[in-house]
Automatic annotation (TrEMBL), chain A:
GO molecular function list: endopeptidase activator activity; proteasome binding
Gene3D superfamilies membership: 1.10.2020.20, Proteasomal ubiquitin receptor Rpn13/ADRM1
Domain Pru: 23-162
Source domain of life: Eukaryota
Protein's recorded name: Proteasome complex subunit Rpn13 ubiquitin receptor
PANTHER family: ADHESION REGULATING MOLECULE 1 110 KDA CELL MEMBRANE GLYCOPROTEIN, PROTEASOMAL UBIQUITIN RECEPTOR ADRM1
Entry's localization field: Cytoplasm; Nucleus
Residues annotated as signal peptide: none
Organism: Seminavis robusta
Keywords, alphabetical: Cytoplasm, Nucleus, Proteasome, Receptor
Low complexity composition-biased segments: 162-178, 185-204, 222-244
Keyword Nucleus belongs to the record: yes
TrEMBL record, chain B:
Active site (UniProt): 100, 178
Lineage: Eukaryota, Sar, Stramenopiles, Ochrophyta, Bacillariophyta
Any one GO molecular-function label of the UniProt entry: cysteine-type deubiquitinase activity
GO CC term (a single one): cytoplasm
Residues annotated as domain UCH catalytic: 7-240
Record-marked site positions (Transition state stabilizer): 94
CDD domains linked: Peptidase_C12_UCH37_BAP1 (cd09617)
Stated family: Belongs to the peptidase C12 family.
Protein source organism: Seminavis robusta
Residues with site note (Important for enzyme activity): 193
Superkingdom in the source lineage: Eukaryota
Protein's GO biological process: protein deubiquitination; ubiquitin-dependent protein catabolic process
This protein's name: Ubiquitin carboxyl-terminal hydrolase
Stretches assigned to coiled coil: 236-263
Amino acid sequence: MYSDLFDHLGSNAGNSSSSSSNSNEKQLVTFKAGKMDLTLQENGNYWAAPDTRRGEIRIVWKTNENTLYWEWYDRREKSVADADRHLLFSLGGTSQELGTLEKVTNGPKQQAGEQPDRLYVWSRPPAAGATNPGYEMYWMQDASEEKDDEFIAKINQYLADPASANPNSSSTTAASSSGAGGGSSSSTTRNADTATSSSSSNDRQQVDALSNILENLGMPQNNNEGSSSASNNNAASTSSAARSGAGTLTLADLQGAMAGLQQQQSGPPGPPLQELVTPAAITSLLENEAIKKRLLELLPEEQRSEEFLEENLRSPQVQQTLRSLTMALLPDDTGSMDGYHSVLANFNMAEGAQEALQNNSNNPIQAFLECVLKSVEKEGKDDTEEEGKKDEETKE
Amino acid sequence: MAEGGEEWCTIESDPGVFSEVLEEVGCKHVELEELWSLDEETLMTLHSTGAVYGLIFLFKWESKKNKPPASPSAKPREPLSEDVIPPNLFFAHQTMTNACATQAILSVVMNAGLTPEQLGPTLAEFHSFTMTFPPSLKGDAIASSDEIRKAHNSFKKQDAFLQEGRFHIPTGDEEAFHFVSYIPLDGTVYELDGLQKGPIPVGTFSAGEPTSWLAVAREAIQERMNASPEIKFNLMAVIQDQRLELKRKLGELENDNDKAAEHSEVVASLAAQDAKREQWKRENQQRRHNYVPLCMEIIKGLAKLGTLPELATEAKERYAEKIAKKKMKT
């Protein structure tokens, strides 16, 4: 009760003795935040409700264990429960994905005074056997939101590069550099500086981080030792290649990748499918009986007659759907190509999808068209083969 | 009460869509007609088809840059405060974004003086249930009505995998509308805008001339259009199902052999109305259809014809040109 009061007065007297004096640990980041209770509902979603206890998120380096922890400290109990202590990094241990802490922008509708609005979510891959949803949510408890962004940036820097927390590390890229770590560009540059130097655990972490960033951007990650052949088709294998041979990713690779990215952003990623399906193209389809037959089957149930085929093909709905399909193929805001893969998977054309992306300098629409061409070729072959079989059967 | 938080889908602003929403909710007496002009002739023709219950003025917000047009500055009009809203006037605050079209239409229908039979059981019950509610609660009642939402959401897009949140990226050309209704009630024309705190009286008309209210409404709409000429708009009339009046006339003429010409004219008009309904029905089926498989087959068809690579190259060039032109403009 009283410690809360002290907190308000800013004295912080209540907890000063408990931890900072502890010579075995170094608090790298601390800020006042409460937890959100997440309850699994019947519909599979989690219901989030604020835990009203006053607390603090701490990023702590334990010098005796050479280990980095994420802790939620209960300011009233003046302690950290075991369930609220998460291992981030341990010297000599294996590295793992730590995710990021992000502001919840599409959270529940909040009514004034009822729910906190400075909500943050730490999304991370769930630990093996864990029943948690793969994320934790927190709400800011400092009266002023002025420093929120700074805290979040600091935390994300440690999540991206936990090795930099080691006070004994020679790394010059420790999280003290102010404000960095929010945008991907600053962290990639940071990684580039050291990626060529040596193969310390630090660099391995950074190369991993770089791989992850490139992967998220949907970039092919060229291994400069590998040939340009399609040996590194999928991002996962490149990523592990980079892991096993730290230092193979060079600044030149990074620059190349970024240049490609820029081109991708400024150049038209088209052609949009609605631009491709011209009125003349539709006319040509209507002249082919076999194609017409297949199209007829896909009209609205009540309209499956030749009478309505042209009206449907030239309808605004078809144009709109081609537009949506184009948008679905393009990478989303985070650079994820999930849409592209999901469209192809939906239509049984996932085979060679990754290769098609590489063949078309990561233009998902061109790659999609390549997959369509291939699947049609294959269908054609199957059809002729089947016909051949039928012929044989009839001969027998 | 409804289970909370149910979504209202976006629906297209089209007389065929709105008429079907009303039909789905059980009101078969009313239809919507798009108006291309507000001149005397149009209004007279409209009136000759049967009762005109109200006009709906739709602003199309092209992008977020365009703000909703302000009320005409020439004659600033004040919305009525809650305690002076006539008790028989149905006015609801807009509480759901995507429900606003349906809400504007309901505002007209609820004030049309229809019998419970003409409203249909759902709306008749809704009308008597909400009549004493204040505007905010009326808005909430619309938003939480299962029946109305169901009729509205029957136009929900079926191409689920494109809509599934994570893969659905707003295309930017999705349009936002705002709807304002104009209705006659007891000698006064009111502007009903769910974003205002109350109905706005825009003028009076003599009850002896039932069409004179249209001239008053026209003036108010004209003022709005002049105030922001750059904004796209549509105009729709909420009218009696035109087939009802035609059928009534037909009954009259059937026993009158002298009016054979007029008779065949009405028969032709009725056939035209039936054809329009058929067209609406077909278009609405198309609106509800999932065209993703068809589109995929179109592209596959072009691949089979061997024209796909060529079409792609041409499309890419055209697209690059378009982008270049856009850049030149900005």
